[in-house]
Amino acid sequence: MDSSLDQLFASANSIILGKSHQIKLAICCLFAKGHLLIEDIPGVGKTTLAHTLAKLFGMQYQRIQFTSDILPADIIGGSIFDKESNQFTFHHGPLFNQMVLADEINRSTPKAQSALLEAMEENQVTVEGKTYILPQPFFVIATQNPAHQIGTFPIPESQLDRFLMRIELGYPDRQAERELLMGQLRHRLIDDLQQQINPQQLAEIQHAVSKIYASSALLDYIQAIIDFTRQSGEYQYGLSPRAGLALLQAAKAWAYMQQRDAVIPEDVQAVLAPVAGHRIRSGQTDSAAIVAPILEQIEID
Q1: How many CB atoms lie within 10 A of CB 86?
Q2: What pLDDT is attached to residue 172?
Q3: Whole-angstrom Cα distance, residue 103 to residue 38?
Q4: Facing residues of 144 across strands?
Q5: Per-residue model confidence (pLDDT) at position 40
Q6: Residue 276 and residue 247 in contact, taking contact as beta carbons nearer than 8 Å
Q7: Are residues 173 and 243 in the same domain?
Q8: CA-CA distance, 296 to 291, in Å (whole number)?
Q9: Are residues 21 and 147 in the same domain?
């Protein structure tokens, strides 16, 4: 890993203590031009992680607090009548930023959640028949509370599929928590962070990731994984073609972060749980447990 990425991870780890692997997955998701879903209980650092990444990448950042009464227009924006010009003018909503934090997305109704669908898939929104292009790069981080908590609405599968990865932060270990208790509030430390990579450099990284080589044998391995999810009987339904593309793109980004110019099976395995865990259903709820049969039964040729 080159020095710029080393410094990037070091800076992020100085804010989000004891979660280096989750930080790498979040940055991998960004490098792969995907969107990230963080599922966990309140208070473990989900919002802090999003704000930290925005600062390190110098991206225009906006947090949207999702509630039960939020409307699509509160997210996208809407047309307002201008008396001076005697016509309606579209006013951009908070979605028109480079990094958008959709905080507690499952506290809103499916109607409000659906406002993100076109934006996440096509980097644009359509309002009253007119299309508006979103800023680039465009990265959505959504957080959701566990489904059993009061006031939550399930996220439809079509919405879940728009997220390249789903991760959990979890509780910090004892040492990290002691540092948290003895140190400053983390959001105050974010103000002192220095930008490590600018949006133009990020775009170059994302382009480089797309050029990472995947051999025919590597594609055979990914297809074996996809076929297993569809035919083994372990899951209610298997990975879709879009999910297969997501797995390949995330594996390319992971390979790039390891300074490799080609994907190897270990890269696929490293991102399998966060990419596939929210797309397939089994008797398990933990992503690692969900994909465990795949890792155990699919052999690497």
Answers
A1: 7
A2: 86
A3: 10
A4: 39
A5: 84
A6: yes
A7: no
A8: 9
A9: yes
What φ, ψ does residue 59 adopt, rounded to 5°?
A: -100, 145
pTM of the shown model = 0.91
Domain annotation covers residue 118: yes
Q: Given this model, what pLDDT does residue 19 score? A: 92
Crossing angle for the helix pair 265-276 and 241-257, nearest 10 degrees? 130
Please give the pLDDT value at position 223: 97
- Residue 39 shares a structural domain with residue 177: yes
Report d(CA 256, CA 262) in Å as an integer.
Answer: 8
Determine the Cα–Cα distance for residues 206 and 137; give it in Å rounded to an integer.
10
To 10 degrees, what angle do helices 241-257 and 216-231 make?
140
Q: Which residues of 253-287 are buried (b: 16+ CB within 10 A; e: fewer)?
A: bbbbbeeeeebbbebbbbbbbbbbbbbbeeeeeeb
Asked if 36 and 163 touch (Cβ cutoff 8 Å), the reply is yes
pLDDT along the chain (301 residues), means of 10: 82 91 96 94 86 94 91 88 79 94 88 85 87 93 78 77 92 87 77 90 96 97 96 90 96 96 97 94 84 91 73
Structural tokens at position 266: 């270990």
> Can you give the CATH number for the domain in which 71 is found?
3.40.50.300
What is the separation of C-alpha 26 from the centre of its chain, rounded to a whole number of angstroms?
6
Paired sense of beta strands 87-92 and 77-82, if any: antiparallel
Side chain identity, residue 121: E
Read off the CATH number of the domain in which 284 is found. 1.10.8.80
Q: What is residue 89's predicted lDDT score, i.e. its pLDDT?
A: 82
CA 70 to mean position of chain CA atoms: 22
Residues 30, 253: Cα–Cα separation, whole Å? 9
Domain span including residue 79:
3-200
Boundary-marking domain end, from 167, 200, 233: 200
Task: Say if residue 137 is in the same domain as residue 237.
Answer: no
Instruction: Return all residues near 61 (Cβ < 8 A) that are at least 6 apart.
Output: 50, 51, 54, 55, 97, 98, 99, 100, 101
pLDDT of residue 1: 47
